[in-house]
Amino acid sequence: MEAATTTTTSSQPRQRRLKRKRAAALASDPELERLNSLPWNPTFPRNNDEDDNNNGNDPFAMLATGSNELEGGFLSLEEIDEADYAFSFPEPQTNEKKNQNKKKSKLDENVKEEGKKEEADAGVGGGSEGGSDEVEVKKEKKKDKKKKKKKKTKKNKKKKEEEEEEEEKEEEAVTESQNVEKPDTGSIDIDAKDDDVVGEEDFDETEFYAWNELRLHPLLMKAIYKLGFKEPTPIQKACVPAAAHQGKDVIGAAETGSGKTLAFGLPILQRILEEREKATKMEEERGEEPEKYAPTGILRALIIAPTRELAIQVTDHLKAVAKYINVRVTPIVGGILAEKQERLLKSRPEIVVGTPGRLWELMSGGEKHLVELHSLSFFVLDEADRMVQNGHFKELQSIIDMLPMSNISTEDNSQHAQNCVTVSSYQRKKRQTLVFSATVALSADFRKKLKRGLVKQKQSVTDELNSIETLSERAGMRSNAAIIDLTNPSILAAKLEESFIECREEDKDAYLYYILTLHGQGRTIVFCTSIAALRHISSILRILGIDVWTLHAQMQQRARLKAMDRFRENENGILVATDVAARGLDIPGVRTVVHYQLPHSAEVYVHRSGRTARASAEGCSIALVSPKETSKFASLLKSFSKDNFQRFPLQNSYMPEVLKRLSLARQIDKITRKDSQVKAEKNWFDRNANSVELVTENDDSEEERVNKHKQMKASSKQLKTLQQELKMLISRPLQSNTFSHRYLAGAGVTPVMQEQLLQLAKQKLNDRPGSGVGKKGKLVVIGQDCVEALQALRNAGEEVRMDVKDFAGKRRNIENRKRKRKEEKKRLRDQRRKQKRKLKQDNE
Ligand SMILES: Nc1ncnc2c1ncn2[C@@H]1O[C@H](COP(=O)(O)OP(=O)(O)OP(=O)(O)O)[C@@H](O)[C@H]1O
Fold first, then answer.
1. What stretch of residues is annotated with the motif Q motif (predicted)?
2. DSSP string spanning 128-194?
3. What's the pLDDT band for 64 if we cut at 50, 70, 90?
4. For the chain, percent of residues with pLDDT exceeding 70
5. Could you tell me the distance, in angstroms and rounded to a whole number, from the CA of residue 460 to the centre of ligand 1?
6. Cα dist from 785 to 151, 745, 754, whole Å
7. What pLDDT does 268 receive?
8. Is pTM, for the whole model, over 0.80?
9. Residue 581: which of 69, 86, 67 has the closest Cα?
10. If you take atom 28 of ligand 1, which residue's CA is the nearest one?
11. Which DSSP letter does residue 746 get?
C-alpha cells in the first residue's frame, strides 16, 4: 500500500507536500488500513519482462492453461444482421445508487454537523433551559438562519448534482473517466475519490475472500467491493493469473454473461498499476526517471469491440473498476462527432475502447494519441468471432498493421517504435494480445500451432482476415498463449433452460401471445430475424393491449435509445428485436428470450439466448419452431451436442380464447394497415403534385365517390365493432375453457392478469353489489399467483429426446413427397397438353 500512496517525483517540493498529505490521509483512513491488511503481495513474482515462460513458480499456471483447455463446441460462422448503433448503458451491477443515497445522507449529516458546530460555537447548544426570553429569541433567530442556510446548502448541492448529471448525460456515454480532470501524476491517486469514501464500511471483506488468490491491487479490490462482486467468475479466475501475473497472451472463451469484460479489464488495470508502483520505487531507490517505467499520456490498451453499444458498455464497466485509480478510459465509436472524440483523445486516455470503423477513421487521419502505439501493452479483441465476419475485418486489418511488431527482440522493436523517444525496455516488453468471445472456435490445428510456437509474423500471414486464427496471428499472438476455453460442449449459459414449441408458422403469434400473457413476468426479449416479422408482431401485440418496445437496425438512434431505456425501466418490459440486440447487451432481469424466428446460425442463437441467465442469474429461452424450421433446429441441436430439449408446457384449454383474440387483432390490423396505406398513398400523391405545382383533380364519378365513402364508413364501423369486441375480451383475464368465475385455476396469474382480475372484481361489485365473485362478493385468487416461463418450464416441461437423424429423415421425406407431387403435376400437365394437341390435329 505504501507504494500506492507515494508520488512520482519526490524531488519537487509540491509533490512532496502531496505525498505527505496522502500519507496523512492513509494514516487516518481506516478503510485503507483495512485494505492494507488484506493478504496482497505487492511484489508480484511476474514481470520478468523478457521472460514469458517463468511460470514455474506460479501457482496459477495450471489454472491458466492445462485443465481448462477443453474443447468447446465449434460453430459455423454465418452472417448476422447487425448494424451500427449506439446505446447508453447502465453501470454494470454497481451499488452506485445506494452509495449516492448514502453520499447524500452523509452530505446532509455533514450539513447537520456544521449546524451543530456553529450552534456550539455560538453558545446556543440545546438544553439551556434557564435562559432569558431575549436569549431565546436570539436562539430562535439563529436557528432560523441556520435552517435557511442548511436549506440553501442542500439546494445548492442538489443543483450542483443535477448540473453534474446533466453534463454527464450530455457527453452521451462518452464521458471521460471520473478522474480525467486530475493531472496525470503517473501515480495512484488515492485522493482521486476522496469525496466518495462513504458506504464502504458496510461490506465484509471476508465475503470477498475468493478474490485473494488473484492478487489484485487493493485499489482494484476496493472498486470490486463497491461493485459487490463477491467472487471472481471462472473466466476471471483463469485469465487474471495468466494475463496479469504471467504476462501471457490469452484466447478466452466462456459463456455469455460470464464476466469476460473484467477477465481482460482487470489484467490491463493491474499491469498499469504495477508499472506505476515500480516507477515510484525505482525513482525513490535509484532516482531513476519514472517515465522510464510508467509512461504517462500514452495509449496503453486498445480494446476493439464490434458494435458501438458494446464499446460503450465495456468502457462503463472498466470505468467502474478504475474508480479509485487515475486511469482514463474513452470510447471511440461511430455516431458521435469525430471532433468530439478527438477532443476526448486530447486528454490522452490510457485505455481506448473502440469500434473498428471509427478507430480506423481517426488512425488513418493521423490522430496522434492513436498512432503513437509504441507503448501499447494490450491489444484486445472482444467478441472476436464477430470481428472476422464481413464488414469489420478490412478496418481491423489496417488497425492491426499499425501495431508495432511484437515477438521480436527489444532492439528490433526499437526500430519499429516510431515517434518513440523515451521508451524503455521495461515498457517495451511484449505487447499482450487478448482475444475473447462466447463462441470462439479454434481449430485443433491452430491450438497445435500455438503449442509448437509456430506463430508467424504478420508480414508472412495471408491478407485474408477471415478467421480468429489469422486475426490472432496477425495481431502478434505469441506461441505460449493461454487458451482458456470454459465453454461447455453446448456453449450455452449454465443457468439457461431451453425449450421449444412446435407450431405452424401462422400459429406463432398465438403462442407468443400465450407466453407473454400467461408467463410475462420479468423482462422478455422476442427475437425475429426479419424487420417485417418484427413489425407484424409488435403491431398485433399492441392491438392486443401488450406494451412492447421495438429495436431494429432501421430505427433512428434516438428511438433505439428510448426503446432501450423504456425496456430497462419496466421490470416486466417486453422488447421485440432483431439480431442487433443479440450480442453483448447486458440488461439485468431479462428472464425470458423467445426466438420467434430461428436465427441464421448457432452462434447467433447462443448470443440471443445469452441476454438472459447472465452473471449467475437464471433464465429460459423458448424457440417457436415451425415445420419449415425443423432442419435448422436439428442443426442447432447438433451444434450444441444436444439430443434432448424441453417442450414448453402449454395449456391448450387457453388456446380457443387466445385464437379468438388474435383473430380480432388480425382483422383490426388488416383494416388499419389498409387505411393507413390509402392515406399514405394519397398524401404521397398530393405532396408530389404540390412539389411540381400540379392541381390534382378527382376523376372519380359521383357514384364512385359515394361508393368509396360508403366503403370507408362500413370499414370504420367494422373497425369500431371489432375494437369494442376485443376491448371487452382483453378487459378480463385470459380464460381457459374450464374457467369458472368462482374458481380460477391453471397456468397462474400474470401481473397483467392480476390487474385485470382486480378490475373484473370491481366491475362485478359495481354491477351487483354484494354478489360478486366469491362468497363475500370478492374475487379470491387461489393457487399460484405468478408463473414465469422458467417456473412453468420447471414445473411441467417435458423432456423430449430429439433424434437429429430422425429430424433429417423427416425433412427428407417431406422433400421427397414434395418433389414427387411436383413431378406428378408436371406429368399431368404434359399429358393434358399432348391430348389437346392431338385433339387439335384430329380436328384439322
Ligand atoms: N465477478 C463477478 N461477480 C458478479 N457479477 C459479475 C462479475 N464480473 C462481472 N459481473 C457482471 O456480470 C455481467 C456480465 O458481464 P459481462 O458483460 O462482462 O459478460 P460477458 O461474458 O462479456 O457477456 P457476453 O458474452 O454476453 O458479452 C455484468 O453485469 C457484470 O457487471
1. 209-237
2. -TT--HHHHHHHHHHHHHHHHHHHHHHHHHHHHHHHHHHHHHHTTT-PPPTTTTS---SS--GGGGG
3. very low
4. 59
5. 37
6. 46, 10, 8
7. 95
8. no
9. 86
10. 92
11. S
Per-residue pLDDT reduced to its tens digit, 112-147: 444 443 333 333 333 333 334 444 545 555 666 666
Q: Which atom of ligand 1 has the smallest separation from the CA of 92? A: 31
Distances (CA, A) of 647 to 627, 638, 779, 801, 828: 15, 17, 33, 10, 42
Pairing of strands 301-304, 351-354: parallel
Contact 144, 171 (CB under 8 A): no
Residue 564 Cα, ligand 1 centroid: separation in angstroms? 19
ipTM above 0.85, yes or no: yes
For atom 12 of ligand 1, which residue has the closest CA? 615
- As a whole number of angstroms, the distance between CA 154 and CA 148 comes to 10
Contact present, 406 and 480 (Cβ < 8 Å): no
Q: How far is the CA of 597 from the centre of ligand 1 (A)?
A: 27
What separation in Å is there between the alpha carbon of 266 and the centre of ligand 1? 13
d(Cα 13, Cα 365) in Å, to the nearest integer?
A: 41
Q: Which residue stretches of 500-649 are H helix?
A: 508-518, 531-543, 557-569, 602-609, 630-639
CA distances from 756 to 91, 255, 350, 549 (A): 35, 39, 55, 22
Nearest CA to ligand 1 atom 24: 256
Binding pocket residue ranges, ligand 1, CB within 6 Å:
92-93, 229, 232-233, 236, 256-262, 438, 584, 586, 610, 614-615
**Rounded distance between C-alpha atoms, residue 453 and residue 478, angstroms:** 7
Pocket mutation for ligand 1, best pick of 258, 440, 608 (most atoms within 8 Å of C-beta): 258
Q: Ligand 1 centre and the CA of 327: distance in Å?
A: 21
Average pLDDT over residues 618-644: 84
List the residue whose alpha carbon is closest to atom 10 of ligand 1.
259
Ligand 1, atom 4: nearest CA belongs to which residue?
Answer: 229
For residue 325, give the 3-state DSSP assignment. Answer: coil
Query: Looking at per-residue confidence, does 281 or 205 come out higher?
Result: 281
| Structural element, H or E, at residue 718 | helix 702-730
Q: What's the 14 CA to ligand 1 centre distance in angstroms?
A: 41
Choice from 260, 380, 486, 523 to test ligand 1 binding pocket (greatest atom count within 8 A of CB): 260
Indicate if the pLDDT at residue 236 is higher than 50.
yes
Q: 386, 308 in Cβ contact below 8 A?
A: no
